[in-house]
């Protein structure tokens, strides 16, 4: 599988991580549809389901290309994560599975299990993993979360009352091949238009970049900024999420909530 394309999919995942902070904190299950546009052209549909219980979570995301990207790549990913909600509802992952399809390669499976060892939680490859490259050193897989569990971590960070303009939070992420941080920053209201407010993410590479675990030998290794505009109310509904890809803007826009994931298609 092209690691470049996988990392670009993770850009959308990270952007949606902030978007999930837009739903009411008491919602037990959330199902939503997002549309992605690259340089103004329809690029993908994203379907998201988050389920929080009293002590556990189960999250799923599907990303499928549309338009020209679909014609050239036939890219599709379906990923799910589950784990427990610890103190102050901090998400602690237990397992993560993702299946990727491309035009030339089908059913590429990333599988991780999070095990406790030596006082740390280590991300280990699961039995269904089809990765051909060796995993990163254990130090880079320690006390991290998968990209989907990052949803729950960021939701918790955005709900925390101590976060004031200028405040930051950091989410350590391991995707099965790469280790990076999601750094969030709450921006002052003065930087947004009337009736809206901005938040900012930075995707900061740590390890597994610059060809270390890449199958194409030339992955994107520069930090990426993600801009989010949300309504300035208690719901904080996302108005737009923007990240540069190939020097052009990838914009993810909320479309609608659904009763179930099965009714979100079309």
Structural class call reads mainly beta
Radius of gyration: 17 Å
- The termini sit apart by 27 Å
Number of strands: 13
Helix tally equals: 4
Estimate the mean pLDDT confidence.
Answer: 77
Q: Rough shape?
A: globular
Q: What letter string, H or E per element, gives the SSE order?
A: HEEEHEEEEHHEEEEEE
Q: What does the main sheet amount to?
A: 13 strands, antiparallel
> How much of the sequence is in beta strands?
over 45%
Uncertain regions spanning at least 5 consecutive residues: 17-27, 212-219
Order of adjacent strands in the largest pleated sheet:
7-6-5-4-3-2-1-13-12-11-10-9-8
Helix content: 10-25%
Briefly say what this structure is:
This protein is mainly beta and 266 residues long. It has four helices and 13 strands.
Report what the structure shows.
This protein has a 13-stranded antiparallel sheet. With 266 residues, it is mostly beta strands. It has four helices and 13 strands. Helix content is 15%, strand content 46%. The radius of gyration is 17 Å and the shape is globular. The two termini are 27 Å apart. Strand 4 and strand 5 form a beta hairpin.
Which terms summarize this structure?
single chain, 266 residues, mainly beta, 13-stranded antiparallel beta sheet, 4 helices, 46% strand
